[in-house]
Amino acid sequence: MAETPIFTKTFDFITWLMSATNGFPRSQRFTITRRLWDAALDFQELIIDANACRGQARRDKLDLADAELDKVRLYLRLAFRWEWLTAGQYRHVAGLVTEIGRLLGGWKQVKGQSAAV
User: Fold this and answer.
1) For position 101, which CATH number holds?
2) Cys-Cys crosslink for 103: which of 6, 58, 97, 111, Cβ 3.0 to 4.6 Å?
3) How far is CA 34 from CA 9, 58, 72, 97, in A?
4) Do the beta carbons of residue 102 and residue 6 sit within 8 Å?
5) What is 53-67 written as a DSSP string?
6) 24 within some domain
7) In the predicted model, is pLDDT for residue 1 greater than 50?
8) What is the DSSP string of 40-55?
9) Higher local confidence (pLDDT), 105 or 110
């Protein structure tokens, strides 16, 4: 599991996020920052759970993971709009999240949902 692309990219994203959010305003650590972290970690947990499931249970986990990734995108856009992320940071993280989204979409398209990632 640890060497498959979606798990590797998600690990890289979360590692980057930890460092980047240290620069967010202290007043937002328990609101927007927390929600961003929760969405990112929930996404990671859901793809781990999905990898352990088959059939409809896997599809359900992947759909939930997709919703969490949408939340991550929203919170990152807000952080950029509020200038908590530089343009370069936002381009970098948007690229990571886009790649994770593509990998997730590909996984959701696997016929029968029986193959592990």
Assistant:
1) 1.20.1440.60
2) 6
3) 21, 27, 11, 18
4) no
5) --HHHHHHHHHHHHH
6) no
7) no
8) HHHHHHHHHHHHH--H
9) 105
Q: What is the dihedral of CA 99, 43, 14, 52, to 10 degrees?
A: -90
Closest CA to 46 of 67, 61, 68, 63: 61
40 — phi, psi (to 5°)? Answer: -65, -45
At a CB cut-off of 8 Å and minimum separation 6, what does 58 contact? 50, 113
What share of the chain has pLDDT > 90, as a percent?
82
Tokens 């929600």 sit on residue: 35
Classify residue 10: in a domain, yes or no: yes
- pLDDT for 115 beyond 70: no
In a domain, 35, yes or no: yes
Which two three-digit tokens encode residue 84? 């908590």
Nearest alpha carbon to residue 14 among 31, 30, 32, 38 = 38
Residues contacting residue 28 through CB under 8 Å, at least 6 positions apart: 84
